[in-house]
From TrEMBL:
<dbReference type="InterPro" id="IPR051829">
    <property type="entry name" value="Multiheme_Cytochr_ET"/>
</dbReference>
<dbReference type="Pfam" id="PF13435">
    <property type="entry name" value="Cytochrome_C554"/>
</dbReference>
<keyword id="KW-1133">Transmembrane helix</keyword>
<feature type="transmembrane region" description="Helical">
    <location>
        <begin position="12"/>
        <end position="31"/>
    </location>
</feature>
<dbReference type="InterPro" id="IPR023155">
    <property type="entry name" value="Cyt_c-552/4"/>
</dbReference>
<keyword id="KW-0732">Signal</keyword>
<keyword id="KW-0472">Membrane</keyword>
<protein>
    <recommendedName>
        <fullName>Cytochrome c-552/4 domain-containing protein</fullName>
    </recommendedName>
</protein>
<dbReference type="InterPro" id="IPR036280">
    <property type="entry name" value="Multihaem_cyt_sf"/>
</dbReference>
<feature type="domain" description="Cytochrome c-552/4">
    <location>
        <begin position="201"/>
        <end position="242"/>
    </location>
</feature>
<keyword id="KW-0812">Transmembrane</keyword>
Length: 300
């Protein structure tokens, strides 16, 4: 196989197919209106691989974390050094802490081998039965997929694979434990209700809600695909302070006024941003609790 186009092999796609069934259910119940055409790609990924990743929102509500730096340099510096910023990232040599050096692990009858191609991170998925029946112990119809996103940078990193339906992302079955420097089964690393039926993880309807800023899952019912958008990957300034485009426009406009007039306008006009520290204890707790008050969405 060459380039970014994966070869589809039915015998090694059982868990991807299972996730696609979940996606089809989400489309069927029409969780959202059909979205507009996909927007700007995040990062430097090139087509067609870029189409498998979340798109950047272009509705003018969010200003982006870089817009905060001029007026809030210290706060921006503190946030930039935090694990909030690195909660969700595009995969690159700068963001991946896991070993992609040819290690192989087995899951539900499949063998996953992690490896690199230059600055790209890939997994080869083989049917163990097919490999055992082959003279060279390799599945002749192995599936090769390039990983696009990583979540986490503190205790562990979990990875995501393209789900073949727009920019649907599904959970890679192994996660990297940073302190232990080893791979471990992903299903054994998250605390959940023991009675919850485990299913394939759909990033677009679950993790996007708290691990990005300005999330829009955007399942397209008519096209049977996801066209998810975010303002920022990771948890950036606007995740807690709300959309800041109006605030940035206000500050830039007032900065051009004479000092006396500017001070009068600052006192008279709404700040056009949420400051959690100024909220009462219940509402300020809700800002954090919207994500830190739960661990898992059992129902999307």
């Amino acid at each position: 196989m060459h380039g970014d186009d994966p070869k589809i092999h039915p015998s090694t796609l059982r868990w991807i197919v299972a996730l696609s069934v979940v996606a089809a259910v989400l489309f069927a119940i029409n969780l959202t209106a059909p979205p507009e055409p996909p927007g700007q790609a995040l990062g430097q990924a090139q087509p067609p691989f870029a189409a498998t990743l979340p798109f950047r929102r272009d509705d003018g509500e969010y200003a982006g974390s870089d817009s905060c730096r001029d007026c809030h340099a210290n706060e921006h510096k503190s946030w930039h050094a935090s694990y909030h910023r690195t909660m969700t990232q595009l995969i690159s040599p700068e963001t991946v802490r896991a070993a992609f050096d040819g290690q192989a692990h087995e899951f539900q009858g499949e063998r996953f081998t992690m490896h690199r191609r230059g600055d790209e991170y890939w997994t080869s998925i083989e049917s163990i039965d097919a490999a055992n029946a082959s003279p060279d112990s390799r599945d002749p119809e192995a599936l090769h997929l390039r990983l696009g996103m990583v979540t986490g940078s503190h205790h562990m990193q979990v990875f995501w694979l393209p789900g073949m339906k727009g920019n649907l992302q599904i959970g890679f079955p192994f996660a990297w434990l940073i302190d232990d420097q080893r791979w471990a089964p992903r299903s054994s690393l998250f605390i959940r209700n023991p009675h919850t039926v485990l299913s394939k993880e759909n990033w677009n309807m679950n993790c996007i809600r708290c691990h990005t800023t300005g999330p829009q899952p955007r399942p397209n019912q008519a096209a049977q695909r996801f066209e998810s958008r975010v303002a920022d990957l990771g948890i950036s300034c606007e995740a807690c302070h709300g959309p800041a485009n109006r605030h940035v426009d206000r500050q830039q406009r007032l900065a051009r006024l004479p000092e006396a007039e500017r001070q009068q306008a600052l006192d008279a006009e709404p700040l056009a941003i949420v400051q959690p520290a100024d909220l009462d204890h219940a509402r300020s707790s809700q800002v954090c609790g919207s994500c830190h008050g739960m661990k898992w969405f059992d129902k999307s």
